[in-house]
Amino acid sequence: MDVSITWQGAGPRDIEEQIIIRFEEVLKSVEDIKSVVSKATEGRARITITGKERVDRKQFADAVREKINSVNGLPADADRARVSERVNRQAMIRLALHGDIPVRTLSSLAREIRKEIGALPLISNVNLLGVGQEEISIEISEQAMSLYKITFMK
Questions:
Q1: CB 7 within 8 A of CB 78
Q2: Domains in the chain: how many in total?
Q3: What pLDDT digit, counting tens, does each position of 51-105 carry?
Q4: 0.70 cut: is pTM over it?
Q5: Is residue 94 part of a domain?
Q6: Domain check: are 115 and 49 in the same one?
Q7: Which residue segment(s) compose the domain that 142 sits in?
């Protein structure tokens, strides 16, 4: 999770004392925090909160948002804190399917495996590559087209 807030004209010391310390205090009561790293720069505070490995991401994000939004009495000319989830999209596994079965069956199996993997906890994105879209081909003779008064343009 990332928390950022801007306060135009404030120096790093003011940002640390009036914003960062207050946010860090309320975050102490959030369960499953692995680490909190804060940085105060000219006009900006940034806090990165990392959850433990097996944390429920949604509950964790909701808890962090709730605590950050509960902080009152921030400097009047500071912007509202922005809380965003950090998305890690590193490839965890690659799976290749092959076999002596029809392509349509193999594609269907790949889609089913994708759906099952996507339902696992901690999995946020599953890509399926190499599976073409199904096509429907219609063949009609010129004689049938003439009979039904259909042209190639239609």
A1: yes
A2: 2
A3: 998 888 889 999 999 999 999 999 999 999 999 987 666 777 788 888 899 888 8
A4: no
A5: no
A6: no
A7: 103-147
